[in-house]
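Issue: copy button drops trailing tokens. Both records pasted manually instead:
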Amino acid sequence: MKENVSRPARSRLRRTEERLKYILREQIAELASLLEVVISVLVLLGLLISAVPVAREMLSLWSSGSTDAFQTFLGHAFNLVIGIEFIKMLSKHSPGSALEVLLYAIARNMILGHGSTMDNLLGVFSIGLIFVIRKFLFVPSFGSSRPGSEVIRPSVPAAPDTKAPDDAPVP
């Protein structure tokens, strides 16, 4: 048997369904943001714990003086820097911070990796491409604020001899 449901009732049902979908999507987005914060805190704790051995390695550089010890120290220091940039990327949600994580990871691989000439050439090309992206394709207003906050806009002072009318809209 087919039920006869009036159009207004179906319309109300559809609006209720859409509202519930919206609320669930918002709750899932909030939960994902909370998980990002938790992961950021865990990575930060890991970085703080990892910084202690790096400090000890730095002190051992004085006594050993070998290039192997320096390579090890440099690798751990790069890992800390990449971890810090990763935390910034999770908290800022900006394309610039994601590009910086990639930049440091590629630089670490080039400096500490013992790859071929072709690997180094690809690394140089990749770093150059990141700078081209930052220079020509990166839009400053996109991602210049954290989610839920106002967009950061640079303020431009008015010329000293001009005055804005009192009823002019504020940008």
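Record 2 (pasted manually too):
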Amino acid sequence: MQFDLVKHPGGVFSPASEIDLERLQRFKTGETYTAEIKLTRNPQFHRKVMAFFGFCFEHWCANRSGLEHMDEHSQFDRFRKDLTILAGFYVQTVRLNGDMRVEAESLAFANMKQDRFESVYSALINAAIKHVFANTKDQSILNRLQAFF
């Protein structure tokens, strides 16, 4: 399982979002667990991107996509990847049966340079306006989206 965590003084880590908090409830208090910690890119920028995805996710409907039976974390993860693909940042691969498969580029710090990540980020807003918000002209939604940049 993977979680986004924020480090606080005294060596304490806490979940970075409500979704991560909910998933952490599965673990028993007082038990010992092994974790591999990786630093994300500019933490403030990363939080901004995740807040952007969260805002868009709140306005998206899982029922229309066939994902309504998945847990919220899985829905969010699929949504995030699909929006990245719609923004034009993906890799095409061929399956063993010859079918073409499209996979979102990883936004992980180790997999993408900062300038490329910033290009992805600016393309995400256009993909969100077109595919999540149906080319809305609602100024309050457009202002909220612009506030993430």
